[in-house]
């Protein structure tokens, strides 16, 4: 389903009816991946782009001792490997964090659309620039924030992005990822993450297990994270929720 991807592109660039039709006309090959199943492996030379339709996925790197560092999270509508439209080989892995449905779209389709409709090319360019902005924020998160801020910041972003993608808006963000996933995204241990989550719950920044996330929880969580969502640019349409 390209509709959510089209929505993301239109947040980046105004598209005409013809340009919208060109994006919606991309040929899709559906695929299903189970949790933890690889979608792309480092060293692969893909010829098609994966568009996430349902679920959560991540890009990750592995260090010399086999430890995983999650370097980005991805949500329905995201183009998972757009960079290989221009770069030949993958320098990272992409895996499913939950069960995922995705669509394969050939780079040939993308090439033809970009050549015929430059506005679509600009939208894709702006999309990749926004992703780079998120990468810079993640670098700051892992490198300079304390453990509580790291976890809180990631959970705010996760909640905002999943909500914008229509994924269970009232669920706590801790329901979307395991504590091991959060640890690998923040450079902490799972034990340390568990302690931070308990602190956030006791401070009313997260609901108790199985309870619903409220606007009051989200506001408290943002306060712990010292969250400024300007770095998300057009990756979410809920700008008042991001920055408020």
Automatic annotation (TrEMBL):
Domain annotation HTH crp-type: ranges: 145-219
InterPro entries according to UniProt: cNMP-bd_dom, cNMP-bd_dom_sf, HTH_CRP, RmlC-like_jellyroll, WH-like_DNA-bd_sf, WH_DNA-bd_sf
Top-level lineage group: Bacteria
Keywords: DNA-binding, Transcription, Transcription regulation
UniProt feature coiled coil, ranges: none
Gene Ontology biological process: regulation of DNA-templated transcription
UniProt cross-references to SMART domains, sorted A to Z: cNMP
GO MF entry, a single one: DNA binding
Official protein name in the record: Crp/Fnr family transcriptional regulator
Origin species: Sphingomonas spermidinifaciens
């Amino acid at each position: 389903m390209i509709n959510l991807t089209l929505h993301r592109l239109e947040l980046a660039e105004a598209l005409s009816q013809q340009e919208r039709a060109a994006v919606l006309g991309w040929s899709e090959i559906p695929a299903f991946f189970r949790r933890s199943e690889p979608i792309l492996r480092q060293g692969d030379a893909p010829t098609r782009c994966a568009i996430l339709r349902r679920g959560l996925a991540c890009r990750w790197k592995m260090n010399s001792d086999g430890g995983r560092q999650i370097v980005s999270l991805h949500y329905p509508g995201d183009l998972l490997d757009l960079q290989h439209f221009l770069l030949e080989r993958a320098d990272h892995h992409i895996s499913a964090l939950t069960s995922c449905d995705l669509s394969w779209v050939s780079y040939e389709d993308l090439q033809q659309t970009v050549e015929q409709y430059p506005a679509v090319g600009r939208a894709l360019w702006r999309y990749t620039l926004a992703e780079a902005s998120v990468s810079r924020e993640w670098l700051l998160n892992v490198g300079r924030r304390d453990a509580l801020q790291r976890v809180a910041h990631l959970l705010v972003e996760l909640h905002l992005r999943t909500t914008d993608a229509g994924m269970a808006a009232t669920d706590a963000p801790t329901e979307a990822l395991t504590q091991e996933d959060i640890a690998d995204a923040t450079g902490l241990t799972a034990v340390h993450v568990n302690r931070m989550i308990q602190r956030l719950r006791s401070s009313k920044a997260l609901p108790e297990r199985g309870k619903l996330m409220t606007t009051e929880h989200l506001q408290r969580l943002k306060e712990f994270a010292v969250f400024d969502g300007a770095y998300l640019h057009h990756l979410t349409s809920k700008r008042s929720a991001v920055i408020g």
